[in-house]
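ENTRY TYPE: paired fold submission
RECORD: A
CONTENT: sequence, then structure tokens
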Amino acid sequence: MTSFTYTQASSLADASSKTAAAEAKLIAGGQSLLGAIKLGLAAPEALVDLGGLADLKGIRVNDEVRGAHVVIGAMTTHAAVAASKEVQQAIPALADLAGRIGDRQVRNRGTLGGSLANNDPAACYPAAVLGLGATIYTDRRSIAADDFFLGMFETALQPGEIITSVSFPVPAKAAWQKFKQPASRFSLVGVFVAQTATGVRVAVTGAGAGVFRATALEAALSAKWSPGATMAVSISPAKLNSDLHGSADYRAALIPVLAGRAVAACP
């Protein structure tokens, strides 16, 4: 491990000022950042811990004029989302996704906000956020899901900007399917499908440089919501990943299969 200073933030304002004052990084659950430091991929001069900010934790359901939303604090753990009766009732696909992230240790330490800020190209939460058309709230503004994910480990967050919560619209139907890499339990390919107030959305993670919407599948499912409709869609492997776990062609073939399984799994 490299040398760094460690402080706990007492408030959002305190976290923001401490981050701006030095070459500091915010730490949430630490499930990605600490591993990166150990591997020499990150060398922050300081870590500012958000773990003590109770205002960034919790789950609530808002019934608004524009429809019901599940609002989840950025520091809420994956395990808490998976176990939440509110989430299980309102968006069971989101609870299912959270319950299949990593292993128990990761689920009990990792957080929603940390996952989104890190934006690993094979992470699960970005697929739910993009698939449901969620809104990310920070200490400065709100960001629509379609504008948040910019590329591999890249988001619309500005330096020092802190995610405070995420608002998930309650869909008519939604489901998640994940073909995991057995050692890391990240998604080799993961597909989140949803019938939302603005139409069908299909988000794919693990297959490319970052999470993306599969518009051809969205069009097919808008025309006919059935598992068979996805199998008529051909996904181009041109911009997909190839590695020792699977070729781009393999990932391209998996996407419509998993989308079909997700449609079949919708309640």
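RECORD: B
CONTENT: sequence, then structure tokens
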Amino acid sequence: MTAASARPRRSALYLPASNAKALAKARTLPVDTVILDLEDSVAPDGKVEARAMAVAAVGEGGFGRREVVVRANGLNTPWGAHDLAAIAASGPDAVLVPKIEGVEDIRAYNAALAAAPAQTRLWVMIETCAVLPRLHDVAACAADSRLAGFVLGTNDLAKEMRAQLLPGRVPFQPVLTMAVAAARAHGLVVLDGVCNEFRDLAAFTAEAQQGLLFGFDGKTLIHPDQIEPCNAVFSPSAAELDWAERVVAAFAAPEHAGKGVIKLDGKMVELLHLDQARRLLAIAEQIAA
């Protein structure tokens, strides 16, 4: 388990990089990840200014323990290449890029980030129909590129698929499963898409709980009011932490030294459960900090 894999990413809030007040507020919110957006939330005539503001915000810092990600415009747009060059020079934790369709896009974005610091990772939006049958091939690029994360773009997927994005997200359930499975197979972060209900927090919470059930690390957000319920859903519960502590203690007992399988509370517990327990405790420790 790496430090990156144990980093809490329960909540990831999109903020328009063109909004100075939003950038200032982001430094005070109890969110795990801040996504400074140059794409969907910025009008064409504001793209250049938004880029400069995002780069300045990254350079100024002040985000504390929050992860800072910048979402660029695509390389197939008039702004994409300039976005990538400027963001690479500023060195955020990650760069998020839109509408990828296959391995060739990962290679192109990885090349565009060649000048970025080594710790700057590449995250990609999973929001096109074309990428869905290629998810495992795309995720496998993590072995020899900066690729480190999938972010679901369910609104764009709904548009392309002509599907309805309703409570329960029935048409998208296979996509959610496939994306999580591909990400887990290759060690990627994977974040659920946004919920458009920012006034109905009960509806939001239900969708966040569904994302947790599917195995997502956290959820992307469109409004600060969604942060608290999102953090609550994706934080390890008291019962989970109690289980984790007892698993770690049981495997550490002298009588279980070197064993791969032990009994705990009448159930068989394996080393894979020990890994899960350690990860839960590490995340809880970072949340507490």
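NOTES ON RECORD B: The CA atoms of residues 198 and 226 lie 7 Å apart. The longest helix spans residues 271-288.
STATUS: closed
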